[in-house]
Fold this sequence. Notes:
single chain; eight-stranded antiparallel sheet; Rossmann fold; Elongation Factor Tu (Ef-tu), domain 3
Amino acid sequence: MANIKKEINKRRTFAIISHPDAGKTTLTEKLLLFGGAIQVAGAVKSNKIKKTATSDWMEIERQRGISVATSVMGFEYSDTKINILDTPGHQDFAEDTFRTLTAVDSVVVVIDVAKGVEPQTEKLVKVCRMRNTPIIVFINKLDREGKDGFELMDEIEQKLGLHVTPLSWPIGMGKSFKGVYNIYNEKLNLFTPNKQTVEEGIEFSDINNPELESYLGDSAGTLREELELVRGVYPGFEKQKYLDGELSPVFFGSALNNFGVKELLDTFIEIAPTPLGREAEQRFVKPDEDKFTGFVFKIHANMDPNHRDRIAFVRVVSGVFKRNTPYYHVRLDRRIKFASPTAFMAQKKSVIDEVFPGDIVGLHDTGNFKIGDTLTEGEVLKFKGIPSFSPELFKYVENADPMKSKQLAKGLVQLSDEGVAQLFTGKHTGRKIIGTVGALQFEVIQYRLLHEYGAKCRYEPITLYKTAWFISDNKEQLEDFRKRKATNIALDKEGREVFMAESPFALQMAREKYPDIKFYFTSEFEEK
Ligand code: G4P
Protein backbone atom coordinates (compact mmCIF):
# COMPACT_ATOMS: atom_id res chain seq x y z
CA MET A 1 0.00 0.00 0.00
CA ALA A 2 2.78 2.40 0.91
CA ASN A 3 4.22 1.75 -2.48
CA ILE A 4 1.05 2.55 -4.39
CA LYS A 5 0.53 5.77 -2.39
CA LYS A 6 4.01 6.85 -3.34
CA GLU A 7 3.39 6.08 -7.00
CA ILE A 8 0.10 8.00 -6.93
CA ASN A 9 1.65 11.04 -5.29
CA LYS A 10 4.32 11.35 -7.93
CA ARG A 11 1.89 11.32 -10.85
CA ARG A 12 0.24 14.19 -12.73
CA THR A 13 -2.00 13.38 -15.66
CA PHE A 14 -3.24 16.27 -17.76
CA ALA A 15 -4.11 17.53 -21.22
CA ILE A 16 -3.17 20.69 -23.03
CA ILE A 17 -6.12 22.18 -24.85
CA SER A 18 -6.35 25.09 -27.22
CA HIS A 19 -7.81 26.41 -30.38
CA PRO A 20 -5.65 25.19 -33.29
CA ASP A 21 -2.48 27.24 -33.76
CA ALA A 22 -2.37 28.75 -30.29
CA GLY A 23 0.80 26.76 -29.61
CA LYS A 24 -0.21 23.45 -28.04
CA THR A 25 2.29 21.38 -30.03
CA THR A 26 5.10 23.82 -29.33
CA LEU A 27 4.35 23.90 -25.62
CA THR A 28 4.11 20.10 -25.45
CA GLU A 29 7.46 19.85 -27.11
CA LYS A 30 9.10 22.27 -24.71
CA LEU A 31 7.70 20.34 -21.76
CA LEU A 32 9.10 17.11 -23.18
CA LEU A 33 12.48 18.78 -23.58
CA PHE A 34 12.48 19.63 -19.87
CA GLY A 35 11.64 16.06 -19.08
CA GLY A 36 14.58 14.91 -21.18
CA ALA A 37 12.04 12.84 -23.09
CA ILE A 38 13.25 14.31 -26.35
CA GLN A 39 16.59 15.85 -27.15
CA VAL A 40 15.86 18.35 -29.88
CA ALA A 41 13.09 20.71 -30.77
CA GLY A 42 11.00 19.49 -33.66
CA ALA A 43 10.96 15.92 -32.43
CA VAL A 44 7.26 15.87 -31.70
CA LYS A 45 6.03 14.86 -35.09
CA SER A 46 3.18 17.10 -35.85
CA ASN A 47 0.40 15.42 -34.00
CA LYS A 48 -1.85 18.20 -35.08
CA ILE A 49 -3.81 17.85 -38.21
CA LYS A 50 -2.84 20.58 -40.58
CA LYS A 51 -5.51 23.00 -41.66
CA THR A 52 -4.68 22.45 -45.30
CA ALA A 53 -5.70 18.85 -44.94
CA THR A 54 -9.42 19.53 -44.75
CA SER A 55 -10.01 18.18 -48.23
CA ASP A 56 -7.49 15.42 -47.74
CA TRP A 57 -9.14 13.36 -45.06
CA MET A 58 -7.10 10.25 -45.78
CA GLU A 59 -4.08 12.23 -44.79
CA ILE A 60 -5.93 13.09 -41.62
CA GLU A 61 -6.55 9.43 -40.88
CA ARG A 62 -2.91 8.71 -41.56
CA GLN A 63 -1.91 11.41 -39.13
CA ARG A 64 -4.34 10.02 -36.64
CA GLY A 65 -2.46 6.76 -37.05
CA ILE A 66 0.80 8.47 -36.28
CA SER A 67 -0.78 10.14 -33.34
CA VAL A 68 -1.17 6.79 -31.55
CA ALA A 69 2.47 7.28 -30.63
CA THR A 70 1.86 10.73 -29.26
CA SER A 71 -1.55 10.00 -27.75
CA VAL A 72 -0.01 9.75 -24.34
CA MET A 73 3.39 11.16 -23.55
CA GLY A 74 4.78 10.09 -20.22
CA PHE A 75 7.99 11.47 -18.82
CA GLU A 76 9.79 12.02 -15.55
CA TYR A 77 10.63 15.46 -14.30
CA SER A 78 11.90 16.37 -10.89
CA ASP A 79 10.73 13.11 -9.23
CA THR A 80 7.34 13.45 -10.85
CA LYS A 81 5.84 11.19 -13.48
CA ILE A 82 3.96 13.39 -15.90
CA ASN A 83 1.44 12.06 -18.41
CA ILE A 84 0.35 14.45 -21.13
CA LEU A 85 -2.67 13.20 -23.02
CA ASP A 86 -2.77 14.57 -26.51
CA THR A 87 -5.97 15.84 -27.98
CA PRO A 88 -6.57 16.22 -31.70
CA GLY A 89 -6.34 19.79 -32.87
CA HIS A 90 -8.78 19.47 -35.70
CA GLN A 91 -12.22 20.51 -34.57
CA ASP A 92 -13.89 17.73 -36.50
CA PHE A 93 -12.43 15.43 -33.90
CA ALA A 94 -13.60 17.46 -30.93
CA GLU A 95 -15.46 14.49 -29.57
CA ASP A 96 -12.18 12.57 -29.19
CA THR A 97 -10.98 15.49 -27.15
CA PHE A 98 -14.08 15.54 -24.95
CA ARG A 99 -13.52 11.90 -24.11
CA THR A 100 -9.82 12.32 -23.46
CA LEU A 101 -10.72 15.00 -20.95
CA THR A 102 -12.49 12.35 -18.85
CA ALA A 103 -9.15 10.60 -18.39
CA VAL A 104 -7.14 13.57 -17.09
CA ASP A 105 -7.06 15.20 -13.68
CA SER A 106 -6.33 18.73 -14.83
CA VAL A 107 -5.76 20.79 -17.96
CA VAL A 108 -3.59 23.59 -19.26
CA VAL A 109 -5.36 25.92 -21.66
CA VAL A 110 -3.16 27.70 -24.20
CA ILE A 111 -4.39 31.05 -25.47
CA ASP A 112 -2.81 33.12 -28.24
CA VAL A 113 -2.12 36.61 -26.90
CA ALA A 114 -3.25 38.22 -30.14
CA LYS A 115 -6.32 36.11 -30.76
CA GLY A 116 -7.57 35.80 -27.22
CA VAL A 117 -10.29 33.29 -26.45
CA GLU A 118 -11.29 31.43 -29.61
CA PRO A 119 -14.33 29.21 -30.27
CA GLN A 120 -12.64 25.83 -29.81
CA THR A 121 -11.19 27.01 -26.49
CA GLU A 122 -14.68 27.94 -25.34
CA LYS A 123 -16.12 24.55 -26.22
CA LEU A 124 -13.35 22.61 -24.53
CA VAL A 125 -13.31 24.69 -21.37
CA LYS A 126 -17.07 24.24 -21.09
CA VAL A 127 -16.54 20.49 -20.96
CA CYS A 128 -13.86 20.91 -18.28
CA ARG A 129 -16.13 23.11 -16.22
CA MET A 130 -18.88 20.50 -16.22
CA ARG A 131 -16.47 18.25 -14.36
CA ASN A 132 -14.82 21.00 -12.28
CA THR A 133 -11.46 20.08 -13.77
CA PRO A 134 -8.68 22.31 -12.42
CA ILE A 135 -7.50 24.65 -15.16
CA ILE A 136 -4.24 26.57 -15.58
CA VAL A 137 -4.15 29.18 -18.35
CA PHE A 138 -1.00 29.84 -20.37
CA ILE A 139 -1.08 32.95 -22.54
CA ASN A 140 1.32 32.35 -25.37
CA LYS A 141 3.24 34.29 -28.03
CA LEU A 142 4.12 37.29 -25.87
CA ASP A 143 6.96 37.91 -28.30
CA ARG A 144 4.24 39.21 -30.62
CA GLU A 145 1.94 42.16 -30.37
CA GLY A 146 -1.34 41.18 -28.80
CA LYS A 147 -4.10 42.13 -26.43
CA ASP A 148 -3.49 43.89 -23.17
CA GLY A 149 -3.23 41.65 -20.10
CA PHE A 150 -6.32 43.06 -18.39
CA GLU A 151 -8.36 42.79 -21.55
CA LEU A 152 -7.38 39.13 -21.80
CA MET A 153 -8.32 38.50 -18.16
CA ASP A 154 -11.74 40.01 -18.85
CA GLU A 155 -12.18 37.90 -21.93
CA ILE A 156 -11.25 34.72 -20.08
CA GLU A 157 -13.66 35.53 -17.29
CA GLN A 158 -16.50 36.44 -19.62
CA LYS A 159 -16.15 33.95 -22.43
CA LEU A 160 -14.81 30.99 -20.48
CA GLY A 161 -16.61 31.70 -17.23
CA LEU A 162 -13.40 31.20 -15.23
CA HIS A 163 -12.28 33.10 -12.17
CA VAL A 164 -8.67 34.00 -12.71
CA THR A 165 -5.65 34.90 -10.66
CA PRO A 166 -2.53 35.90 -12.62
CA LEU A 167 0.55 34.17 -11.22
CA SER A 168 2.78 36.00 -13.62
CA TRP A 169 2.40 39.34 -15.36
CA PRO A 170 3.87 40.47 -18.69
CA ILE A 171 6.20 43.42 -19.03
CA GLY A 172 5.46 44.86 -22.44
CA MET A 173 4.82 42.69 -25.45
CA GLY A 174 5.92 42.12 -29.02
CA LYS A 175 9.04 44.10 -29.84
CA SER A 176 9.07 45.73 -26.43
CA PHE A 177 8.51 42.48 -24.52
CA LYS A 178 10.88 42.51 -21.58
CA GLY A 179 9.76 39.47 -19.68
CA VAL A 180 7.39 38.58 -16.89
CA TYR A 181 7.17 39.22 -13.22
CA ASN A 182 6.40 35.98 -11.44
CA ILE A 183 3.89 36.94 -8.77
CA TYR A 184 3.82 33.44 -7.33
CA ASN A 185 7.49 33.18 -6.43
CA GLU A 186 8.31 36.90 -6.59
CA LYS A 187 10.91 36.67 -9.30
CA LEU A 188 11.73 38.73 -12.32
CA ASN A 189 12.24 36.74 -15.51
CA LEU A 190 13.87 38.69 -18.28
CA PHE A 191 13.28 37.81 -21.89
CA THR A 192 15.99 37.51 -24.54
CA PRO A 193 14.56 36.77 -27.98
CA ASN A 194 15.57 33.51 -29.68
CA LYS A 195 17.44 32.31 -26.66
CA GLN A 196 16.34 28.83 -25.78
CA THR A 197 18.37 28.46 -22.61
CA VAL A 198 16.39 28.86 -19.46
CA GLU A 199 17.63 31.25 -16.87
CA GLU A 200 16.55 31.30 -13.28
CA GLY A 201 14.49 34.33 -12.42
CA ILE A 202 15.96 37.13 -10.32
CA GLU A 203 14.66 37.25 -6.76
CA PHE A 204 12.66 40.44 -6.52
CA SER A 205 10.18 40.50 -3.70
CA ASP A 206 9.96 44.28 -3.32
CA ILE A 207 8.95 45.72 -6.63
CA ASN A 208 9.22 49.22 -5.19
CA ASN A 209 12.95 48.76 -4.96
CA PRO A 210 14.47 51.29 -7.41
CA GLU A 211 16.73 48.55 -8.69
CA LEU A 212 13.77 47.51 -10.83
CA GLU A 213 14.58 50.47 -13.10
CA SER A 214 18.02 49.10 -13.79
CA TYR A 215 16.46 45.99 -15.27
CA LEU A 216 13.39 47.43 -16.91
CA GLY A 217 14.03 51.12 -17.51
CA ASP A 218 10.81 53.03 -18.10
CA SER A 219 8.74 49.86 -18.01
CA ALA A 220 9.38 49.54 -14.28
CA GLY A 221 6.78 52.17 -13.43
CA THR A 222 4.14 50.58 -15.62
CA LEU A 223 4.81 47.18 -14.08
CA ARG A 224 4.37 48.60 -10.56
CA GLU A 225 1.07 50.21 -11.50
CA GLU A 226 -0.23 47.13 -13.23
CA LEU A 227 0.77 44.83 -10.39
CA GLU A 228 -1.04 47.07 -7.96
CA LEU A 229 -4.12 46.82 -10.08
CA VAL A 230 -3.72 43.05 -10.35
CA ARG A 231 -3.53 42.80 -6.54
CA GLY A 232 -6.56 45.01 -6.18
CA VAL A 233 -8.75 43.31 -8.75
CA TYR A 234 -7.96 39.59 -8.60
CA PRO A 235 -8.15 37.25 -5.64
CA GLY A 236 -4.92 35.78 -4.31
CA PHE A 237 -4.05 32.25 -5.32
CA GLU A 238 -5.59 29.52 -3.19
CA LYS A 239 -4.59 26.01 -4.06
CA GLN A 240 -7.81 24.44 -2.85
CA LYS A 241 -9.91 26.74 -5.00
CA TYR A 242 -7.81 25.83 -8.00
CA LEU A 243 -8.18 22.12 -7.20
CA ASP A 244 -11.95 22.57 -6.92
CA GLY A 245 -12.03 24.15 -10.37
CA GLU A 246 -13.05 27.51 -8.93
CA LEU A 247 -9.93 29.56 -9.56
CA SER A 248 -7.58 29.43 -12.53
CA PRO A 249 -3.99 30.62 -12.26
CA VAL A 250 -2.75 32.42 -15.37
CA PHE A 251 0.81 32.46 -16.76
CA PHE A 252 2.27 34.46 -19.62
CA GLY A 253 5.10 33.36 -21.89
CA SER A 254 6.29 32.30 -25.29
CA ALA A 255 6.45 28.59 -25.95
CA LEU A 256 8.46 29.06 -29.13
CA ASN A 257 11.13 30.96 -27.21
CA ASN A 258 10.95 28.55 -24.31
CA PHE A 259 10.04 31.49 -22.13
CA GLY A 260 7.79 31.02 -19.13
CA VAL A 261 7.54 27.30 -19.78
CA LYS A 262 9.73 26.17 -16.90
CA GLU A 263 7.83 28.39 -14.45
CA LEU A 264 4.63 26.86 -15.74
CA LEU A 265 5.98 23.33 -15.36
CA ASP A 266 7.47 23.91 -11.90
CA THR A 267 4.29 25.47 -10.61
CA PHE A 268 2.23 22.80 -12.31
CA ILE A 269 3.96 19.92 -10.54
CA GLU A 270 3.64 21.76 -7.26
CA ILE A 271 -0.08 22.54 -7.46
CA ALA A 272 -1.70 20.19 -9.98
CA PRO A 273 -3.77 17.34 -8.58
CA THR A 274 -2.35 13.86 -8.14
CA PRO A 275 -4.50 11.12 -9.73
CA LEU A 276 -8.06 11.50 -8.55
CA GLY A 277 -10.65 8.85 -7.94
CA ARG A 278 -13.65 8.51 -10.18
CA GLU A 279 -17.38 8.27 -9.57
CA ALA A 280 -18.90 4.98 -10.64
CA GLU A 281 -22.64 4.38 -10.79
CA GLN A 282 -22.29 2.09 -7.78
CA ARG A 283 -19.84 4.06 -5.63
CA PHE A 284 -16.85 6.39 -5.61
CA VAL A 285 -13.58 4.62 -6.37
CA LYS A 286 -10.48 5.99 -4.64
CA PRO A 287 -7.08 5.77 -6.35
CA ASP A 288 -5.35 4.11 -3.41
CA GLU A 289 -7.72 1.17 -3.19
CA ASP A 290 -5.70 -1.99 -3.57
CA LYS A 291 -7.85 -3.57 -6.28
CA PHE A 292 -7.35 -2.52 -9.88
CA THR A 293 -10.10 -0.63 -11.73
CA GLY A 294 -9.95 1.34 -14.95
CA PHE A 295 -11.99 2.52 -17.90
CA VAL A 296 -11.62 2.79 -21.66
CA PHE A 297 -11.70 6.37 -22.91
CA LYS A 298 -10.33 5.98 -26.39
CA ILE A 299 -10.05 3.30 -29.01
CA HIS A 300 -7.69 3.58 -31.88
CA ALA A 301 -8.09 1.47 -34.98
CA ASN A 302 -5.16 -0.10 -36.67
CA MET A 303 -4.41 1.74 -39.84
CA ASP A 304 -3.80 -1.51 -41.66
CA PRO A 305 -7.17 -2.62 -43.06
CA ASN A 306 -6.02 -6.26 -43.09
CA HIS A 307 -5.70 -6.25 -39.35
CA ARG A 308 -8.89 -5.11 -37.84
CA ASP A 309 -7.37 -4.92 -34.39
CA ARG A 310 -7.34 -1.85 -32.24
CA ILE A 311 -5.72 -0.32 -29.21
CA ALA A 312 -7.98 0.45 -26.29
CA PHE A 313 -6.65 3.20 -24.01
CA VAL A 314 -7.41 2.50 -20.37
CA ARG A 315 -7.04 5.02 -17.59
CA VAL A 316 -6.08 3.24 -14.39
CA VAL A 317 -8.32 4.57 -11.61
CA SER A 318 -7.27 2.43 -8.66
CA GLY A 319 -4.89 -0.35 -7.70
CA VAL A 320 -2.18 -1.74 -9.91
CA PHE A 321 -2.81 -3.13 -13.37
CA LYS A 322 -0.64 -6.22 -13.92
CA ARG A 323 0.31 -7.96 -17.12
CA ASN A 324 -1.19 -11.41 -17.81
CA THR A 325 -3.75 -11.08 -15.04
CA PRO A 326 -7.34 -11.95 -15.91
CA TYR A 327 -9.44 -8.84 -15.36
CA TYR A 328 -13.20 -8.65 -15.28
CA HIS A 329 -14.77 -6.92 -18.28
CA VAL A 330 -17.94 -5.72 -16.63
CA ARG A 331 -20.15 -5.16 -19.70
CA LEU A 332 -19.25 -8.51 -21.26
CA ASP A 333 -19.34 -10.25 -17.88
CA ARG A 334 -16.18 -12.21 -18.55
CA ARG A 335 -12.50 -12.24 -17.73
CA ILE A 336 -9.81 -11.22 -20.18
CA LYS A 337 -6.07 -11.12 -19.70
CA PHE A 338 -3.57 -9.05 -21.58
CA ALA A 339 -0.21 -10.44 -22.60
CA SER A 340 1.31 -7.25 -23.94
CA PRO A 341 -0.10 -4.13 -22.31
CA THR A 342 1.63 -1.02 -23.56
CA ALA A 343 2.96 1.87 -21.55
CA PHE A 344 3.52 5.20 -23.15
CA MET A 345 6.79 6.83 -22.25
CA ALA A 346 7.38 9.90 -24.39
CA GLN A 347 7.22 8.55 -27.89
CA LYS A 348 8.24 5.02 -27.27
CA LYS A 349 5.73 2.35 -26.65
CA SER A 350 6.89 -0.55 -24.56
CA VAL A 351 5.37 -3.60 -22.96
CA ILE A 352 4.92 -3.04 -19.26
CA ASP A 353 4.32 -5.28 -16.27
CA GLU A 354 2.66 -2.90 -13.83
CA VAL A 355 0.66 0.26 -14.34
CA PHE A 356 -0.36 2.67 -11.57
CA PRO A 357 -3.32 4.99 -11.00
CA GLY A 358 -3.20 8.05 -13.23
CA ASP A 359 -1.32 6.15 -15.91
CA ILE A 360 -2.72 5.09 -19.23
CA VAL A 361 -2.24 1.57 -20.48
CA GLY A 362 -2.79 0.52 -24.10
CA LEU A 363 -4.52 -2.84 -24.56
CA HIS A 364 -4.54 -4.75 -27.77
CA ASP A 365 -8.17 -5.32 -28.69
CA THR A 366 -9.88 -7.46 -31.25
CA GLY A 367 -13.31 -5.95 -30.75
CA ASN A 368 -14.09 -6.52 -27.07
CA PHE A 369 -14.04 -2.89 -26.03
CA LYS A 370 -16.33 0.07 -26.35
CA ILE A 371 -15.60 3.53 -25.12
CA GLY A 372 -16.71 3.77 -21.51
CA ASP A 373 -16.09 0.08 -20.66
CA THR A 374 -14.90 -0.71 -17.16
CA LEU A 375 -12.31 -3.31 -16.09
CA THR A 376 -12.07 -4.52 -12.49
CA GLU A 377 -10.83 -7.46 -10.44
CA GLY A 378 -14.38 -8.80 -10.23
CA GLU A 379 -16.53 -6.02 -8.82
CA VAL A 380 -19.45 -4.84 -10.93
CA LEU A 381 -18.69 -1.17 -11.54
CA LYS A 382 -19.50 1.27 -14.28
CA PHE A 383 -17.58 4.53 -14.28
CA LYS A 384 -19.60 7.63 -14.92
CA GLY A 385 -18.48 10.66 -16.79
CA ILE A 386 -17.96 9.36 -20.29
CA PRO A 387 -20.98 10.95 -21.80
CA SER A 388 -22.08 11.23 -25.35
CA PHE A 389 -22.52 14.78 -26.58
CA SER A 390 -25.13 15.74 -29.07
CA PRO A 391 -23.58 15.61 -32.52
CA GLU A 392 -23.93 18.66 -34.72
CA LEU A 393 -24.24 17.12 -38.17
CA PHE A 394 -26.58 14.31 -39.11
CA LYS A 395 -27.26 12.07 -42.09
CA TYR A 396 -29.38 9.02 -42.74
CA VAL A 397 -27.19 6.12 -43.66
CA GLU A 398 -28.56 3.63 -46.21
CA ASN A 399 -27.23 0.35 -47.44
CA ALA A 400 -25.93 0.67 -50.98
CA ASP A 401 -25.18 -3.03 -51.47
CA PRO A 402 -28.04 -5.35 -50.46
CA MET A 403 -25.67 -8.34 -50.35
CA LYS A 404 -23.65 -6.73 -47.60
CA SER A 405 -26.22 -5.60 -45.08
CA LYS A 406 -24.70 -7.67 -42.26
CA GLN A 407 -21.27 -6.21 -42.89
CA LEU A 408 -22.73 -2.73 -42.91
CA ALA A 409 -24.54 -3.25 -39.63
CA LYS A 410 -21.41 -4.67 -37.99
CA GLY A 411 -19.19 -1.92 -39.38
CA LEU A 412 -21.50 0.80 -38.17
CA VAL A 413 -21.66 -0.63 -34.67
CA GLN A 414 -17.91 -1.11 -34.42
CA LEU A 415 -17.09 2.32 -35.75
CA SER A 416 -19.49 3.89 -33.31
CA ASP A 417 -18.00 1.81 -30.46
CA GLU A 418 -14.70 3.29 -31.46
CA GLY A 419 -16.25 6.72 -31.18
CA VAL A 420 -15.81 7.76 -34.80
CA ALA A 421 -19.43 8.89 -34.87
CA GLN A 422 -22.67 8.30 -33.03
CA LEU A 423 -25.28 5.97 -34.31
CA PHE A 424 -28.99 6.47 -33.71
CA THR A 425 -31.92 4.36 -34.81
CA GLY A 426 -35.28 5.96 -35.49
CA LYS A 427 -37.63 4.41 -32.93
CA HIS A 428 -40.52 4.50 -35.32
CA THR A 429 -38.82 4.07 -38.66
CA GLY A 430 -35.85 1.89 -37.78
CA ARG A 431 -33.74 4.10 -40.05
CA LYS A 432 -30.12 4.53 -39.05
CA ILE A 433 -28.82 8.02 -38.46
CA ILE A 434 -25.17 8.97 -38.13
CA GLY A 435 -24.30 12.00 -36.08
CA THR A 436 -20.88 13.65 -36.01
CA VAL A 437 -19.24 16.86 -34.90
CA GLY A 438 -17.41 17.33 -38.19
CA ALA A 439 -18.17 16.81 -41.87
CA LEU A 440 -15.01 14.78 -42.35
CA GLN A 441 -16.26 11.83 -40.37
CA PHE A 442 -18.90 11.04 -42.99
CA GLU A 443 -16.20 10.47 -45.57
CA VAL A 444 -14.04 8.59 -43.10
CA ILE A 445 -16.94 6.25 -42.27
CA GLN A 446 -17.79 5.59 -45.90
CA TYR A 447 -14.17 4.82 -46.67
CA ARG A 448 -13.61 2.61 -43.66
CA LEU A 449 -16.86 0.69 -44.17
CA LEU A 450 -15.76 -0.16 -47.66
CA HIS A 451 -12.13 -0.95 -46.92
CA GLU A 452 -12.48 -2.68 -43.60
CA TYR A 453 -15.92 -4.27 -43.80
CA GLY A 454 -16.55 -4.52 -47.54
CA ALA A 455 -19.81 -2.62 -47.08
CA LYS A 456 -21.14 0.23 -49.12
CA CYS A 457 -23.24 3.03 -47.74
CA ARG A 458 -25.02 6.03 -49.09
CA TYR A 459 -26.09 9.12 -47.17
CA GLU A 460 -29.36 10.96 -47.30
CA PRO A 461 -29.97 14.37 -45.83
CA ILE A 462 -31.94 14.85 -42.66
CA THR A 463 -32.98 18.13 -41.11
CA LEU A 464 -31.80 17.92 -37.55
CA TYR A 465 -30.51 20.52 -35.16
CA LYS A 466 -29.50 18.38 -32.21
CA THR A 467 -30.30 15.22 -30.34
CA ALA A 468 -31.42 15.77 -26.79
CA TRP A 469 -31.50 13.01 -24.20
CA PHE A 470 -34.55 13.40 -21.96
CA ILE A 471 -35.84 12.31 -18.58
CA SER A 472 -38.84 13.05 -16.42
CA ASP A 473 -40.63 11.90 -13.28
CA ASN A 474 -43.89 12.96 -14.83
CA LYS A 475 -45.08 9.77 -16.53
CA GLU A 476 -48.07 11.42 -18.18
CA GLN A 477 -46.03 14.12 -19.86
CA LEU A 478 -43.48 11.57 -20.92
CA GLU A 479 -46.10 9.33 -22.48
CA ASP A 480 -47.77 12.21 -24.25
CA PHE A 481 -44.44 13.44 -25.55
CA ARG A 482 -43.49 9.97 -26.78
CA LYS A 483 -46.83 9.64 -28.57
CA ARG A 484 -46.89 13.04 -30.21
CA LYS A 485 -43.25 13.14 -31.14
CA ALA A 486 -42.96 9.47 -32.07
CA THR A 487 -41.35 10.20 -35.43
CA ASN A 488 -38.77 12.44 -33.76
CA ILE A 489 -37.59 9.94 -31.21
CA ALA A 490 -34.58 7.74 -31.80
CA LEU A 491 -32.49 5.39 -29.71
CA ASP A 492 -28.78 5.90 -29.16
CA LYS A 493 -26.52 2.90 -29.23
CA GLU A 494 -27.09 2.17 -25.56
CA GLY A 495 -30.82 2.10 -26.23
CA ARG A 496 -31.49 5.45 -24.54
CA GLU A 497 -34.15 7.64 -26.06
CA VAL A 498 -33.24 10.92 -27.68
CA PHE A 499 -35.42 13.67 -29.04
CA MET A 500 -34.35 14.60 -32.54
CA ALA A 501 -35.01 18.32 -32.55
CA GLU A 502 -35.30 19.75 -36.03
CA SER A 503 -34.50 23.27 -34.92
CA PRO A 504 -33.76 25.27 -31.78
CA PHE A 505 -37.36 26.38 -32.01
CA ALA A 506 -38.67 22.80 -31.99
CA LEU A 507 -36.67 22.15 -28.85
CA GLN A 508 -37.90 25.31 -27.22
CA MET A 509 -41.48 24.37 -28.03
CA ALA A 510 -40.99 20.93 -26.53
CA ARG A 511 -39.49 22.49 -23.39
CA GLU A 512 -42.43 24.83 -23.05
CA LYS A 513 -45.07 22.25 -23.71
CA TYR A 514 -43.53 19.65 -21.44
CA PRO A 515 -42.10 21.63 -18.54
CA ASP A 516 -41.53 18.49 -16.46
CA ILE A 517 -39.32 16.86 -19.05
CA LYS A 518 -35.65 17.72 -18.89
CA PHE A 519 -33.68 17.79 -22.13
CA TYR A 520 -29.90 17.45 -22.22
CA PHE A 521 -27.32 17.81 -24.95
CA THR A 522 -25.07 15.37 -23.16
CA SER A 523 -26.03 11.91 -22.05
CA GLU A 524 -24.87 12.37 -18.47
CA PHE A 525 -24.43 15.93 -17.39
CA GLU A 526 -26.48 18.91 -16.68
CA GLU A 527 -25.14 21.77 -18.70
CA LYS A 528 -24.00 24.78 -16.75
P1 G4P B 1 -1.15 24.07 -32.15
O1 G4P B 1 -0.50 22.78 -31.79
O2 G4P B 1 -1.89 24.70 -31.01
O3 G4P B 1 -1.96 24.03 -33.38
O4 G4P B 1 0.01 25.16 -32.44
P2 G4P B 1 1.55 25.00 -32.78
O5 G4P B 1 2.32 24.66 -31.56
O6 G4P B 1 1.73 24.13 -33.97
O7 G4P B 1 1.87 26.51 -33.11
C1 G4P B 1 1.23 27.19 -34.16
C2 G4P B 1 2.17 28.21 -34.73
O8 G4P B 1 2.47 29.19 -33.75
C3 G4P B 1 3.49 27.64 -35.20
O9 G4P B 1 3.94 28.37 -36.32
C4 G4P B 1 4.40 27.90 -34.02
O10 G4P B 1 5.76 27.96 -34.39
C5 G4P B 1 3.88 29.26 -33.57
N1 G4P B 1 4.18 29.55 -32.17
C6 G4P B 1 4.04 28.75 -31.08
N2 G4P B 1 4.43 29.40 -29.96
C7 G4P B 1 4.83 30.61 -30.34
C8 G4P B 1 5.37 31.73 -29.63
O11 G4P B 1 5.55 31.74 -28.43
N3 G4P B 1 5.65 32.84 -30.38
C9 G4P B 1 5.48 32.89 -31.73
N4 G4P B 1 5.81 34.00 -32.35
N5 G4P B 1 4.98 31.85 -32.42
C10 G4P B 1 4.67 30.72 -31.75
P3 G4P B 1 3.69 27.93 -37.78
O12 G4P B 1 4.45 28.86 -38.65
O13 G4P B 1 2.25 27.75 -38.05
O14 G4P B 1 4.27 26.49 -37.82
P4 G4P B 1 5.74 26.00 -37.89
O15 G4P B 1 5.99 25.90 -39.34
O16 G4P B 1 6.59 27.03 -37.19
O17 G4P B 1 5.68 24.71 -37.19
